[in-house]
TrEMBL record:
GO molecular function, one term: 3-oxoacyl-[acyl-carrier-protein] synthase activity
Originating species: Pararoseomonas baculiformis
Protein name: Beta-ketoacyl-ACP synthase
Entry keyword annotation includes Acyltransferase: yes
Family: Belongs to the thiolase-like superfamily. Beta-ketoacyl-ACP synthases family.
Gene3D superfamilies linked to this entry: 3.40.47.10
Enzyme Commission designation: 2.3.1.179
Alphabetic keyword roster: Acyltransferase, Transferase
Signal peptide boundaries: none
Superkingdom, natural source: Bacteria
Length: 419
């Protein structure tokens, strides 16, 4: 079977997920539908004198003894868990020998403060030149912070084919990884691949940087109520971590081997605005363009979308921009939209992949996850945001939005299996 442009259909045959709500797709999905929050106080590093002291943290087994892993190692552990679950669900290939490439979306890396302090102590000098001079005895630091190293180690563990692709496009990263995988299958470069989005950036330096941008919620006294997308009293996003993996396959090849088809990635659209390092262009053209490009790529009209998995960060500017974009694309008949970030926070590089997983589950189960903490509607948000309680619905196609810092925007269309 082919799509409207004559390309192979791209099926999803396996999924894996880890968030602050728990480990595994089903555990996360059941808690999302129940409207539970994974946001809590940060305990892995001191937060005295910080404006924000909450996050969506994932507690890894390796950290149970008190050791805190660096962000790249946390990314590797969570991505590995999600990949393990996705590959097992797909029943594709022998263990440790996956018959396709890896596309890994992850955050940029740099040496974190604890290791910088270690190098400074050894050098007895806080300058970068002095720290660099003593790094020769710390091969582990070099390997931990090598951006491509995470993908190389995961590729070796799962036996993926070819050189793994590691990429970062800010908050759109997870969706970008899926888009690369879809396009590789459409071009005939492979019949299967693994697309992953993962982020482990809840560490002191990253938290302070986002705080200095006035981007984070400071509702510390009630962590579970801090993430409030589309609500009148929203005041910033909640930084979180997690990972999701999807096994993508040529639909005909998957059917031929008797695979269970979870759904399709039927469209992907991107549009950058090159306006500002962190802000989106107020005219909204890039956001509107990304949504329209995804619909065009899927060969769908706006009225065929049943539900939108919103970017919905809970920042005043972003939510208004998404509302504007939705009205520009869908007019007065906009479908329901909700934000998973109200429960799991903003997982940054993992967000697009996690939201793709939840979008496919929305189609499978006919249940719209809610936007929790919606106590007081904002008159400027004119959309049905599925407030507070999950809802039954017939869902055929979902648009999943990922709008990143620097105007990097990617939208995906997820669909049910062809009748």
């Amino acid at each position: 079977m082919r799509d409207h442009l004559g390309r192979p259909l791209v099926a999803v045959t396996g999924m894996g997920a880890v968030t602050s709500l728990g480990f595994g797709v089903q555990d996360n999905w059941s808690r999302l539908l129940a409207g539970q929050s994974g946001i809590r106080r940060i305990t892995r590093f001191p937060t005295e004198h910080l404006k924000t002291t909450i996050a969506g943290c994932v507690d890894l087994p390796e950290e149970a003894g008190g050791e805190v892993l660096t962000s790249p190692l946390r990314v590797e552990r969570m991505a590995g868990f999600a990949m393990e679950e996705a590959v097992a669900a797909s029943i594709l290939g022998a263990k440790g020998s996956f018959p396709g490439p890896l596309f890994l979306g992850m955050p940029p890396v740099e040496v974190e403060w604890p290791d910088r302090f270690l190098l400074t102590r050894e050098a007895s000098n806080p300058s970068y030149a002095a720290m660099t001079a003593v790094t020769g005895g710390h091969r582990a630091i070099y390997e931990n912070y090598l951006f491509g190293g995470v993908g190389e180690r995961l590729a070796a563990r799962f036996g993926t084919r070819g050189a793994p692709i590691s990429l970062t496009t800010a908050c759109a990263t997870g969706a970008s990884a899926i888009q690369l995988g879809v396009e590789a299958i459409q071009r005939g470069e492979c019949t299967a691949c693994i697309a992953v989005g993962a982020d482990g950036s809840v560490h002191a330096e990253a938290l302070i940087r986002f705080s200095l941008l006035s981007a984070l919620s400071t509702r510390n006294e009630e962590p579970e109520k801090a993430s409030r997308p589309f609500e009148k009293n929203r005041a910033g996003f909640v930084m979180s971590e997690g990972a999701a993996a999807l096994v993508l396959e040529d639909y005909e090849a998957a059917r031929a081997r008797g695979a269970t088809i979870i759904g399709l990635v039927s469209g992907a659209g991107e549009r950058a605005d090159n306006f500002h390092r962190t802000r989106s262009n107020p005219d909204g053209r890039a956001i509107v363009g990304a949504m329209k490009n995804a619909l065009d790529d899927a060969g769908l009209e706006p009225g065929q979308i049943s539900y939108v998995n919103g970017h919905g960060t809970g920042t005043p500017e972003n939510d208004k921009m998404e509302n504007f974009g939705m009205r520009a694309v869908f007019g007065e008949n906009a479908p329901p939209i909700s934000s998973n970030k109200s429960m799991i926070g903003h997982t940054l590089s993992a967000a697009g992949a996690l939201e793709a997983v939840f979008s496919l589950l929305t189609i499978r189960d006919g249940r719209l996850p809610p936007t929790i903490n919606h106590d007081e509607p904002d008159p400027s948000i004119t959309l049905d945001v599925v407030p507070n309680v999950a809802r039954d619905a017939t869902v055929r196609h979902v648009l999943s939005n990922s709008f990143g810092f620097g105007g990097q925007n990617v939208c995906l269309v997820l669909s049910g299996e062809p009748a």
